[in-house]
Amino acid sequence: MSESEQIETETKRSFITKQGVFSQLTGEEIDTLASLLSEKRFAPGDTIVTEGDPVDSVYFIVSGTADVRHLSIQDGTMHVESVATLEAGAAIGLNETGFYSLSGVRTATVCAITPLVTLRLSVAAFHGFALSNSHVSAVMRKNASKILGFSSNTDET
Q1: What angle do CA 29, 104, 81 make, to 5 degrees?
Q2: Do 112 and 43 meet the contact criterion of CB atoms below 8 Å apart?
Q3: Beta-carbon count within 10 A of 14 CB
Q4: DSSP string of 107-154?
Q5: What is the reported pTM?
Q6: What is the C-alpha to C-alpha distance for residues 34 and 12, in angstroms, rounded to an integer?
């Protein structure tokens, strides 16, 4: 995908409908949620999210590859371990049942391996969406509220 190409609404809808957590949304709700997604690009080596930071957004990988890394301390020495590789179609911060982190804190660092094109959904925007749409599960609203309470900055730069 070139720098000048915009991600079309149908592509955004496709990423939403592939997520089990959004399976109960109506067509209108999917359209609304799609309108909340913003494109964000990363160069190889860029950090998308950092372990220990507040969860202020989730990402859908449109193209490219990313590495999921976990930090651990063994015998007093810090180790960074690659635990997964994410490719187009994967989500960062979201799983089949909702937000990956229920504590509101990132559980891993994700770095771009190749040029990466993502769709970003801010937790604050999702929270507003959840409050105004009755088909969004109570669990998602609860998790969004919990995470939002941890996040003082809802806009990444």
Answers
A1: 110
A2: yes
A3: 15
A4: SSEEEESS-EEEEEEEHHHHHHHHHH-TTS-HHHHHHHHHHHHH-S--
A5: 0.79
A6: 5
Which letter does DSSP use for residue 102 in this model? S
Q: Which residue type does 123 have?
A: V
Q: Are 87 and 61 spatial neighbours (Cβ–Cβ below 8 Å)?
A: yes
Question: To 5 degrees, how large is the angle CA 90–CA 92–CA 98?
Answer: 95
The per-residue pLDDT for range 80-137, each reduced to its tens digit, is: 899 999 999 999 988 765 666 667 789 899 999 999 999 999 989 988 888 887 667 5
Which residues have C-beta within 8 Å of that of residue 23, sequence separation ≥ 6?
17
Q: 8 burial class (0-12, 13-18, 19+ CB within 10 angstroms)?
A: exposed
Residues facing 78 on adjacent strands: 73
* Residues sharing a CB contact under 8 Å with residue 140, sequence separation 6 or more, in sequence order: 21, 98, 99, 126, 130
